[in-house]
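Data availability (excerpt). The following record was deposited with the supplementary files.
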Amino acid sequence: MRFSPAGDPGVPDCRSATRYLLWLAGRHKLVFTAGILLGVTWMVAQALMPAAVGRAVDALTRRDQQALLGWGLVLLGLGVLQAVAGILRHRCAVHNWLAAAYRTVQLTVAVANRLGATLPKRVAAGEVVSIGTSDISHIGGAIDITARGTGSLVAIVTVAVILLSASVPLGLVVVLGVPVLMAVVGLLIRPLHRQQQAYRDSEGALTTRAGDIVSGLRVLRGVGGEPVLSARYRAQSQALRGDGVRVARVESLLEAVQVLLPGAFLVLVTWLGARFALRGEISAGQLVAFYGYTAFLVNPLRNLTEAADKLTRGHVAARRVVRLLRLTPELVDPPHPASLPDGPGELADGESGVLVRPGRFTALAATAPEDAVVIVDRLGRYVDAEATLHGVPLRDLPLATVRERILVADNDAHLFTGPLRAELDPHDRADDATITAALAAASATDIVDALPDGLDSVVAERGREFSGGQQQRLRLARALVAAPETLLLVEPTSAVDAHTEARIADRLGAARAGQTTLVCTTSPLVLSRAEHVIFVEDGKVVAEGTHAELLDGEPRYRATVSRGED
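Predicted structure:
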């Protein structure tokens, strides 16, 4: 039996954690059912072995060689059946574990991709990491334990029937004792559930704080905030340790009960069986069988308590996964998408009055930089607004179409781990000449030349080996390599020096010649190279023209640009 992750994980049932677990089990009905049947066969074969041993002992006391041989062969057959069923059950259980765990991973990754920028607004990064590291294991364990749990339950019923047929008092002890043992164990499950939930919440919060500290370490050191954040992390870590100790305390008590109660039950049944044998109410073979059954019951009882524990853990984990899967992105495709003409068209924002004409290099200067960001978010459909392309509202277009036609490159974008070539050209569509031209336009050639393996050098997480200005230039080069129909740039030169900014300003227009480009900036170096400049104040267009015209005729623009120049 080989396992390979499903190409299409399917549509999960997210109405509740229980329904999600049942949906996972139903995705592999054949293997899941086979695992349960094999688990029942495996446990029942073990349950019948004490009876065969007892009959063999009775045959031995009667010196009945034929019966002894027959029961010996039965015992051999049960052993072979138990071994074969156990091996196959284990293979099915491993398959079910992997299928449930990796299907959950696929669904989690899919919803993260679907949510996009919405994800960090709704869920902490540590929460997503914890799902991928611990929750999938608990979910897989909940699906895996069903085979052993069901087999153990059927085995206990089988043993109870055999014992009742041999001795009603001893049978009643077993029939009534097992539910009592399970009820005692069940009393510990609920507090364990609560402690696990608290530990899981603390773990996700601590992971999120660790990620925040690592990502902002350079800034923290610059402002002297590292000791403060370290102290907070240390305190939160100790709180997590306390939650872990409380979970371990309940778990250790549960483990002790799993050993103590079945052991005490074994002593009780053996003592009663010995008394019945001395009174002649049961035979020696039945006494051996009763002892064997009692010793055997320790295993299915432990399996049932383990099943309760794993199902509880799986339910807690599934609840968190379901909570993530229920999230919906802020932007969704319209029920009846509109069609869009081919080729570049006018991109307009009705709320601000910004109109980006096709095929031109346009600059947008705003008195407040945040106003420019808001306008670009509308033009790139990162919020639903009255923005249009070719006169068609962006909200009426499929989101994939908008992303394909309009690319927004801002300073919140990240560099990812991997070869620099793949970072600049993630779709592997551009040749070396195109990448080289983009690097030159972004004045980033020197960055690549300084790397030991050039474009084949590996970028560390978030490009931490690069300075802020280098990261900005590489992000600009990546946007130019993509060569979108419409490119919206937000402050692409804010982190570079004046000489580098002048080179970028000189080359950017040529690199985007004949393509629609909007640059949000207050840099005179960039504004002077733009074909058309739009000036925005209080979120509205108040003037348009060339850089020189606006300098001469618009004092507010002149004041804004002067601040940018300073």
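Summary of structural features: DSSP finds 19 helices and twelve strands in the chain.
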